[in-house]
Design brief:
Number of helices: 3
Radius of gyration: 24 Å
Shape: elongated
Strand content: under 5%
Largest sheet: none
Helix content: 55-70%
Oligomer: single chain
Mean pLDDT: 87
Structural class: mainly alpha
């Protein structure tokens, strides 16, 4: 039970730290919570016996860093492969004169 509480405190602390120092707090909250939760879970799956002390904290920080790096890469390459916008159609300027 102590290891679970330690992991929960690690997730909350890393999420709070990222949210505090971020300019976009809602995105930081989601990325921090997701990254630290996934990081601690994967560390527990890989080495449940070693899941004491600072291991959940390290896993939470590394998981958050990985998710933030992935988010940054997606944001960087967003729109790189999108086709250029089509030029505006200027047919609205044509006036029809009826006799």
């Amino acid at each position: 039970m102590g290891a679970l509480l330690n992991a929960l405190v690690a997730v909350l602390a890393v999420t709070a730290a990222l949210t505090t120092w971020s300019l976009d707090r809602r995105t930081a909250l989601v990325l921090g919570a997701a990254g630290s939760t996934v990081g601690t879970f994967l560390a527990w799956v890989v080495a449940p016996a070693a899941f004491t002390g600072v291991v959940p904290w390290i896993a939470a920080v590394l998981g958050t860093a990985a998710v933030v790096a992935g988010w940054s890469a997606v944001r960087l390459y967003d729109g790189v492969f999108a086709p250029p916008p089509e030029p505006e159609d200027d047919t609205q300027t044509v006036a029809t004169i009826s006799r």
